[in-house]
């Protein structure tokens, strides 16, 4: 899994931030490590120096192998809440994408006549 981390001019990028984000992504997506080839994480401060509630945005783009990229955003009052909110959204989105790939039509279809027959044989 390749992980790329970027920040805008209002957020200081550091080795500590990079290590933290990599650890969080690895912990949450370890079981999908063979399915996801790349993560791109971008932090931005929406209001810049003005401050404000929920002004840190975290955008994560995940690239599952053989599928279209999945992108999520989450705003929080600090980097920690922004990254965790984005990770939660990404987990749900990726689970949906993987489930859809494994069961493209939601499972096997059953005809109405077969369902009625099955019910009558069990009674």
From TrEMBL:
Q: Which organism is it from?
A: Acinetobacter bouvetii
- Keyword Ribosomal protein set for record: yes
Task: Give Gene Ontology CC terms.
Answer: ribosome
Please name the taxonomic classification of the source: Bacteria, Pseudomonadati, Pseudomonadota, Gammaproteobacteria, Moraxellales
Q: Which InterPro entries match?
A: RHF-like, RHF/RaiA
Q: Which UniProt keywords apply?
A: Ribonucleoprotein, Ribosomal protein
Q: Does the keyword Ribosomal protein apply?
A: yes
Superkingdom of origin: Bacteria
What name does the UniProt record give this protein?
Sigma 54 modulation protein / S30EA ribosomal protein
Q: Known Pfam families for this protein?
A: Ribosomal_S30AE (PF02482)
């Amino acid at each position: 899994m390749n992980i790329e981390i970027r920040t805008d001019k209002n957020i200081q990028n550091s080795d500590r931030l990079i290590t933290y984000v990599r650890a969080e992504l690895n912990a949450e997506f370890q079981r999908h490590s063979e399915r996801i080839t790349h993560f791109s994480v971008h932090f931005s401060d929406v209001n810049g120096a003005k401050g404000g509630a929920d002004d840190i945005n975290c955008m994560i783009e995940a690239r599952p192998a053989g599928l279209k990229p999945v992108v999520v955003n989450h705003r929080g009052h600090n980097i920690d809440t922004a990254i965790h909110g984005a990770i939660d959204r990404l987990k749900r989105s990726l689970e949906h994408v993987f489930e859809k790939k494994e069961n493209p039509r939601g499972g096997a279809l059953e005809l109405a006549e077969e369902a009625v027959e099955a019910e009558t044989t069990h009674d």
